Amino acid sequence: MIDAAQRAEEESLLDQTLVRLDQKTYEHFLEVLDCPPGGEGFERLMAAAKPWNG
Q: Cα Rg for the chain, rounded, in angstroms?
């Protein structure tokens, strides 16, 4: 039982990522996340055949 709990805890911790940034870089990171996706790579991805469409 303890082993199962320990494995569950490890999996939970491994699913998390810690990113340390200074304030200016963090604000830029948030700006980038708020921008709508675009560009050639995004267009190509959206045009690709979807496996669930058959």
A: 19
